[in-house]
Structure formats: structure tokens, C-alpha cells
Specification:
single chain; alpha/beta; Rossmann fold; seven-stranded parallel sheet; two-stranded parallel sheet; globular; binds NADP nicotinamide-adenine-dinucleotide phosphate
Length: about 240
């Protein structure tokens, strides 16, 4: 039997957990009883989200940590901090990401590097830092937020598409790795269409053609609730 662990005993690390989709993931995980470390660059945004979600759930479950995913030393410090304080990273949500809209004939080295370092290299480094702890604890879930731009090419964001396609390729290799090593670690990928990160109140109507962030959060909780020997590999989720 693969080891199981109730969410109330789990520690999640959500990059970009202060805003948008990451914030919705954070609130759902915290409501389910997990402790959640949210990490991105803007400390004040993280603090505000942590305070608000903690107020909503009536407990201190969300903790803010400022880091820049493009800085290698920040990644090691972040993972070291989570392990020292909480002893585990049970759920790693690789959600931080950005796009630099430069068409193929306009791409700059800086724009390309910024997108690749944030969306792809940073994820690789975080996974590399967390994997030994997940393996030691014989438990872990890694959730990558790719995009439909990881499955289709769009002329306005070629570097973003390359990074999100790359993320899926990396995730597939990671999944093969954990399968071969027999580790009790699952790897999920979200490939959403457009998600409304402006109208996020639970009763808000999303913009036409956009998904409400609560649907992303519900889907995350469903995916995590599946048996340990089951993995919902790529989650293609669109507005109807
Ligand atoms: N919204 C959509 O329609 C959609 C569709 C498909 C996929 N996605 C993906 O969903 C994920 C979340 O995006 P979102 O839509 O929720 O937008 P968002 O609110 O802009 O979230 C992006 C998050 O990434 C963080 N981030 C950016 N650069 C970072 C860095 N160098 N280090 C650490 N964190 C960094 C940002 O925080 P700081 O600025 O504080 O660092 C922010 O919290 C992204 O990966 C995006 O590509 C979005």
C-alpha cells in the first residue's frame, strides 16, 4: 500500500500563491486544512493574501515568503526554510509564471531569458530541491501550471509557448523518473484555457470565454483526492 496522508497533515508550497490562480489554490488547500507557504517576489502582496485567507479560514494556515524564482540561491533558501519550519513539502505547486509578448521577429534575448528562467528553469530548480525531501518522506505531489499555450502555438507569445511546452516535456520526464524510482510522488499538469484573474469573488461572473479561478481550485482538490496510485496527468480545462 502506498503511504497516504490527510491534507490536514500536509504542507503545500505554492509559488505565485499571492495572486490569481495561485491564490485560489492556496485558499482551497488552506480550507482543507493544509498549511500553505506562498512564495513570490512581492512581500506585501503575499502578506495581504496570507492575512485575508487566514481570516477566511479562521486559523493561521498560510505563510508568506518572498523569493525570486530566477535566483538560484533564493530557491535553496526557500526550500530550506519550509523544511526547517514544517519538516516537509507534500504538495509543490509550480504556478509562478509570466509572458513577454514579443512576436517571433521581435524576440529579445532579455525577454526570452526572463520567460524561460521563470516558467521553466525555476521549476526545474524547485523540483530538484524538493524531490529529495519528498523521497525521504515517501510522499509528494507536484502540480505544474502549464497552459493551452503548452499545447498550441500562438503568434503573440512564442517564448511563453516554448516555456509551457517545455514544462510539459520536463514534467513527463519527471513522471517517468518517479515511476522508475518507485517514489510515492505524483505529477499533475494543468493546461487551462483563459482564466479570469480579475473577477475572483466566489459569486462573480467570469468574463465570457474565461474560467473562474474557483473551478481551477476545485479541480486541484479533486486531482489531489484521487488514490495514490492514480494520476490525472494533463488537465485540459476550458470555458465551454
Ligand atoms: N490567467 C490565465 O488565463 C492563464 C491561463 C493558462 C495558464 N496560466 C498560468 O497560470 C499561472 C498563474 O498565473 P495567473 O493567471 O494567476 O497570473 P498572475 O496573478 O500574474 O500570477 C503569476 C504569479 O507569478 C509570480 N511570479 C512572477 N514572476 C516571478 C518570479 N520571478 N519569482 C517568483 N514568482 C514570480 C507573481 O508574483 P510576484 O509578481 O509577486 O513575483 C504572480 O503571483 C502562470 O504560470 C500562468 O502562465 C494562466
Amino acid at each position: 500500500m502506498l503511504k497516504t496522508k490527510p491534507l490536514t497533515d500536509q504542507v503545500a508550497l505554492v509559488t505565485g500563491g499571492g495572486t490569481g490562480i495561485g491564490r485560489a489554490f492556496t485558499e482551497a488547500l488552506a480550507r482543507a486544512g493544509a498549511r500553505v507557504v506562498i512564495a513570490s517576489r512581492r512581500q506585501e502582496v503575499l502578506n495581504e493574501t496570507a492575512a485575508k485567507v487566514n481570516e477566511n479560514v479562521g486559523d493561521e494556515r498560510v505563510f508568506a515568503y518572498a523569493f525570486d524564482i530566477r535566483q538560484r540561491d533564493h530557491i535553496d533558501l526557500l526550500v530550506g526554510h519550509v523544511i526547517e519550519r514544517f519538516g516537509a513539502v507534500d504538495v509543490l505547486v509550480n504556478n509562478s509564471g509570466l509572458a513577454v509578448p514579443e512576436t517571433v521577429d521581435q524576440i529579445t534575448e532579455d525577454g526570452w531569458d526572463k520567460v524561460m528562467d521563470t516558467n521553466l528553469r525555476g521549476v526545474m530548480q524547485l523540483v530538484r530541491s524538493c524531490l529529495p525531501h519528498m523521497t525521504r518522506n515517501n510522499f509528494g505531489d507536484i502540480v505544474n501550471v502549464s497552459s493551452q499555450a503548452g499545447k498550441h502555438g500562438y503568434a503573440d507569445v512564442p517564448s511563453y509557448c516554448a516555456s509551457k511546452f517545455g514544462l510539459l516535456g520536463y514534467a513527463e520526464a519527471l513522471r517517468d523518473h518517479v515511476r522508475k524510482t518507485g517514489a510515492n510522488i505524483r505529477v499533475f499538469n494543468f493546461c487551462p484555457g483563459l482564466v479570469d484573474v480579475e473577477n475572483t469573488a466566489p459569486d462573480a461572473e467570469p468574463k465570457p470565454g474565461f474560467i473562474h479561478v474557483k473551478s481551477m481550485a476545485k479541480t486541484l482538490m479533486y486531482a489531489l483526492s484521487l488514490d495514490r496510485n492514480v494520476v490525472l496527468e494533463d488537465i485540459n480545462i476550458y470555458a465551454r
